[in-house]
Design a protein that fits this description.
Blueprint: H1 2-23, E1 37-44, H2 46-58, E2 62-65, E3 69-73, E4 77-82, E5 85-87, E6 101-102, E7 105-109, E8 115-118, E9 120-121, E10 126-127, E11 137-141, E12 145-147, E13 150-160, E14 168-179, E15 188-191, E16 198-207, E17 210-219, E18 222-231, E19 240-242, E20 247-248, E21 258-259, E22 266-271, E23 274-280, E24 289-295, E25 306-310, E26 325-332, E27 341-350, H3 358-361, E28 369-377
Antiparallel strand pairs: 1-28, 2-5, 3-4, 4-7, 5-6, 7-8, 9-10, 11-13, 12-13, 13-14, 14-15, 16-17, 17-18, 18-19, 18-21, 19-20, 22-23, 23-24, 24-25, 26-27, 27-28
Length: about 400
């Protein structure tokens, strides 16, 4: 009887460990994974934070926003694509209660480090750069990606479901295409697949002959990662969907690759045969942990979460001493990254969004932060040199 109970107890414990691993509650030490790196530290990328803050505080255009997608543009320019956006004028450390607000914008940094903002409407009455046909709806931007001079921006369409700051519902995904030399208005808007209610375009990753398009499915409070791909670089092409065993032309067969992800994330190739899923732990707004999960292919499977950085702004214990302040939308910026140094951003916000509330009293809250995460591969010492990368050298994130 004792032996049987012990055996049963071991089986129960083993099952519990497997469940915890699947949920990311048990963290395997990265050094035990052959070919995967160890996280050795992370620090703020102060030069980029300072440059963007200086532009925002000038009141010349963008003064705060979220999403924070980036992509290189022709002419040695860099695009920063934002969803909800505050505009000037501004008087730091606060903004007026009637500050202009739009649902999406572009901010461009040129080769000399000068910043400009692109929105729709007129200077006296600014509007979102891209808007749906239904005036009660709005677009938030997905992972903007420049491919051969064509800027492709996935869009998610939303509508209000109640009076609270988080009361909104997903309508469907679309794709905006811009001529990278004319960013004032999209050249075309195309619906993306919608039968599964998946937010397609929350990351876009060219990789060889394919471009992988990552989507997030929200069910209640849970979020699941999906993967599709198109041949070549035109995101209007025919999608095929990862089923867990292969690729299918039917969106209905798209498999949930993993759970516990955020609405925004990234999956990029760090090194040949190593892909990194970057997200917030568990995908909810209560966490202060940016995490990475390593895999061998663009479709995973992805290992358990490894802490990349803890955000100092989050909650009552954070630097704002404010329970309403939260951090979200972690993703990598591959053009600034190398195999041993990852540039990652995250957004900061507050549940107190009414005029006169947190994001009005303290303009620094509603702005992204950038960090540099250091990796060490197979015990290699980080002496300032890079192991042989399989991609081109990274762009400098700061002048």
């Amino acid at each position: 009887m004792v032996v049987r109970r012990t055996g049963r107890l071991l089986l129960i414990c083993a099952a519990a460990v497997l469940v915890a691993l699947g949920l990311g509650l048990v963290n395997v030490v990265p050094a035990t994974w052959p070919g995967f790196p160890e996280v050795t530290g992370a620090v703020p990328l102060s030069c980029l934070d300072t440059a963007l803050t200086g532009y925002a505080d000038s009141g010349a255009g963008w003064t705060g926003g979220d999403s924070t997608w980036t992509t290189p543009l022709t002419g040695d320019r860099e695009l920063f694509a934002f969803s909800d956006t505050f505009l000037g004028p501004i008087t730091p450390p606060s903004r007026p209660g009637d500050a202009a607000f739009v649902h999406n914008s572009f901010v461009i940094r040129d080769a000399r480090g000068r910043w400009t903002t692109v929105v729709g409407g007129t200077p006296g009455h600014p509007a979102a750069l891209v808007a749906p046909a239904d005036p009660a709806h709005w677009f938030w931007l997905g992972a903007a990606t420049d491919m051969a001079g064509v800027l492709q921006v996935p869009l998610t369409e939303w509508t209000r479901t109640g009076p609270g700051p988080l009361d909104f519902g997903f309508v469907g995904s679309s794709l905006a295409r811009f001529d990278a030399l004319d960013l004032q208005a999209p050249a075309s808007l195309t619906p993306l697949p919608r039968s599964r209610h998946i937010q397609w375009g929350q990351w876009v990753q060219p990789d060889g002959a394919w471009t992988y398009v990552y989507g997030v499915e929200s069910v209640g409070g849970a979020k699941y990662l999906h993967v599709a791909r198109v041949a070549g670089g035109d995101l209007r092409g025919a999608y095929s969907y990862w089923t867990g065993r292969g690729w299918s032309a039917a969106e209905s067969e798209s498999s949930r690759v993993t759970d516990g992800v955020s609405a925004e994330l990234s999956v990029h190739r760090v090194r040949a045969g190593v892909y990194l899923l970057t997200t917030m732990l568990g995908g909810d707004l209560s966490t202060d942990r940016l995490v990475g999960r390593f895999g061998r292919t663009p479709t995973g499977p992805f290992g358990p979460p490894v802490t990349l950085y803890r955000t100092p702004e989050t909650g009552r214990a954070g630097v704002y001493r404010d329970a309403d302040v939260y951090t979200y939308n972690a993703h990598a910026h591959p053009e600034f990254s190398t195999p041993t140094r990852l540039v990652i951003s995250y957004d900061v916000n507050s549940l107190d969004t009414a005029p006169g509330g947190d994001v009005y009293r303290r303009v620094s809250i509603y702005r992204p932060r950038f960090v540099v995460v250091s990796l060490r591969w197979n015990g290699e010492r980080d002496n300032g040199s890079e192991p042989p990368p399989d991609t081109a050298a990274a762009r400098r994130p700061c002048a």
